[in-house]
Amino acid sequence: xxxxxxxxxxxxxxGGITRRQLIQGLAVAFTAATAAxxxxxxxxxxxxxxxxxxxxxxxxxxxxxxxxxxxLLGMKVMHDDGKECSLVFGANDTVLIPRNWPSDTPRVxxxxxxIDHWNRDRVEAELKRRGLNPVPDSKNSFHVKDPNGFDVxxxxxxxxx
Length: 161
Hints:
Blueprint: H1 2-13, H2 19-42, E1 49-59, H3 62-73, E2 76-80, E3 85-89, E4 94-100, E5 107-115, H4 120-129, E6 135-138, E7 141-145, E8 151-155
Parallel strand pairs: 1-4, 5-8
Antiparallel strand pairs: 1-5, 2-3, 3-4, 6-7, 7-8
Helix pairs in contact: 1-2
């Protein structure tokens, strides 16, 4: 997993792939790692992810990033507070959230996955049973760490970033 991430970042830094390709590659890698680790730990899947809810993206200049994705990929601005915005795209209304962050290196800080059949108490109990120490974010989501320490947000269909 680390090798895949390092290669994606190196390719991005050398201009070999776009930000969009980097984000897509990271989402696929983290999804695969999370799914494999969970299935191995329990021998079965506790939840069914049905879509990427959102991707939280830390950047030095959120407005420049916003304008890039709106202009190039036709993403729609759903929210903008002057420090971050929500850009909606895709058939399932996935959201990219560029946020101002004091760093020269942009990074995805977490990915939110929408799961089917949300029941807050059942989700929390299952995450605790697996030793994932869920941290409530709202009534519609919990944050956990995957086996690599990456922040993963488990969301209901009602979760709107």
